[in-house]
Amino acid sequence: VKKWVTFYKANRAILDSDIVHVRRPDGRDLDGFLHVNPRLRVKGLAAVFNPTGRKIARDWMLPLYYTGLTVTASVREQGGPVRTYRLDRGFRIHVPVSLPPRSVTWITIE
Questions:
Q1: What is the mean pLDDT of the chain?
Q2: Nearest residue to 31 (alpha-carbon basis) of 46, 41, 44, 43
Q3: Which is it for strands 72-77 and 83-86: parallel, antiparallel or unpaired?
Q4: What is the pLDDT of residue 93?
Q5: Tens digit of pLDDT for each residue in 47-98?
Q6: Which residue of 26, 62, 98, 99 could cross-link 50, Cys pair, CB 3.0 to 4.6 Å?
Q7: DSSP H or E run through 14
Q8: Is the CB of residue 70 less than 8 Å from the CB of residue 91?
Q9: Is the pLDDT of residue 24 over 90?
């Protein structure tokens, strides 16, 4: 519990912002949503879940239109190293995600 309370306190501003559903949850593939706020330094925070009993690895499409970003996005998975992605014409990026069974990860976008 302490881990997630600390996570919430560190990311409170973006977690209390609007949500974009990235994919309809069906329990058979990766599920997730994206918190967005163009007025913050961290403009987006995506939570990605693997509800299945098998490992899933794929490119995860993130729609960044509501983040206010237009050209590039700096992305970190769980606070790791920064990777820069160029947005396509639909203001989307494709981030590689690999999750073990019944796990979660988060991705911050600046």
A1: 95
A2: 46
A3: antiparallel
A4: 97
A5: 999 999 999 999 999 999 999 999 999 999 998 999 999 999 999 999 999 9
A6: 99
A7: helix 12-15
A8: yes
A9: no
Token pair of 27, please?
Answer: 């329990």
Residue 7 half-sphere exposure toward CB, CA atoms < 13 A: 13
User: CA-to-CA distance for 16 and 49, rounded, in angstroms?
Assistant: 19
Q: In this structure, which long-range contacts are made by residues 90-94, counting pairs with CB atoms below 8 Å and at least 24 apart in sequence?
A: 90/63, 90/65, 91/63, 91/64, 91/65, 92/61, 92/62, 92/63, 92/64, 93/61, 93/62, 93/64, 94/59, 94/60, 94/61, 94/62
Question: How buried is residue 13: exposed, middle or buried, by Cβ count under 10 Å (0-12/13-18/19+)?
Answer: middle
pTM: 0.91
| 96 touches 57 (CB < 8 A) | yes
pLDDT class of 30 with cuts at 50, 70, 90: very high
Token reading at 97: 């995600």
